[in-house]
Amino acid sequence: MALAKRIVPALDVKNGRVVKGINFLNLQDVGDPVEIAKAYQDAGADELVFLDISATLEGRTTMIDMIERVSSVVFMPLTAGGGVTDLNGIRQIIKAGADKVFLNSAAVKQPKLILQGAEVFGSQAIVGAIDAKWDEPAGIYRVYIAGGTKPTDLNALTWAQTMVDYGAGELLVTSMDADGTKDGYDVKLYQALNDVVKVPIVASGGAGKIQDFTEVFQDGHVDAALAASVFHYNEIAIPFLKQQLYDEGIPMRR
């Protein structure tokens, strides 16, 4: 039997508030993280992702107190991260109540952090987060770090393989081109990733309508679809979305 697909709302948090932008820019205040997390719990979301989006840029660690508050009101799996630079940072986030920790910028600078985290907490607790943007002249999906502000020399497909080799048990891959546009997920990116890695992939960036979720599950072969705007602004109700996907033959958690 096929594993159930997951619907994952994302809380992008800055200065203690949930925010959302387009292509990582022009951030708008959406509300209180704890209240929003509780609402997603009640709506039947399968997991929740908490991203402290300014931690790396501001050179500080993830807001541990906020993770504690969010984890105290939700019972679904919680993935959190932002600004993690060492094993102790991973430990603090898990101790605060997160089930999984994602590593992005720090992993690029020190890939062994993935290995250390996987050895101590298990691969299932370490999520490799990749912010990728299509680079037409180079013909690759280029990896960006520091909240999508700094390009690297890394090819996202090669980097995905490296992260898995080091022990990442899941990949959270955001298409920067699609982020916040509501024009649909970058299905080609996820198809390419599925050709090179065999761990669960969470697709992020571009959800605008139910058909976008259908396409990324059916054609992109991802395990989970992450979205923010369409859920934050009640443009798509999670129970309705899950029922529609189920009716289309996509295995969903009921």
UniProtKB/TrEMBL annotation:
GO terms for cellular component: cytoplasm. Its EC number is 4.3.2.10. Keywords: Amino-acid biosynthesis, Cytoplasm, Histidine biosynthesis, Lyase. The active site is at residues 12, 131. Its main location: cytoplasm. It is an enzyme of class 4 (lyase). It catalyses: 5-[(5-phospho-1-deoxy-D-ribulos-1-ylimino)methylamino]-1-(5-phospho-beta-D-ribosyl)imidazole-4-carboxamide + L-glutamine = D-erythro-1-(imidazol-4-yl)glycerol 3-phosphate + 5-amino-1-(5-phospho-beta-D-ribosyl)imidazole-4-carboxamide + L-glutamate + H(+). GO terms for molecular function: imidazoleglycerol-phosphate synthase activity; lyase activity. GO terms for biological process: L-histidine biosynthetic process. CDD domains: HisF (cd04731). It is found in: Cytoplasm. Pfam families: His_biosynth. The keyword Amino-acid biosynthesis applies. Pathway: Amino-acid biosynthesis; L-histidine biosynthesis; L-histidine from 5-phospho-alpha-D-ribose 1-diphosphate: step 5/9. InterPro entries: Aldolase_TIM (IPR013785), His_biosynth (IPR006062), HisF (IPR004651), IGPS_HisA/HisF (IPR050064), RibuloseP-bd_barrel (IPR011060). Belongs to the HisA/HisF family. Heterodimer of HisH and HisF. HAMAP family: HisF (MF_01013). IGPS catalyzes the conversion of PRFAR and glutamine to IGP, AICAR and glutamate. The HisF subunit catalyzes the cyclization activity that produces IGP and AICAR from PRFAR using the ammonia provided by the HisH subunit. This is Imidazole glycerol phosphate synthase subunit HisF. It comes from Leuconostoc carnosum (strain JB16). The lineage of its organism: Bacteria, Bacillati, Bacillota, Bacilli, Lactobacillales. The gene is hisF.
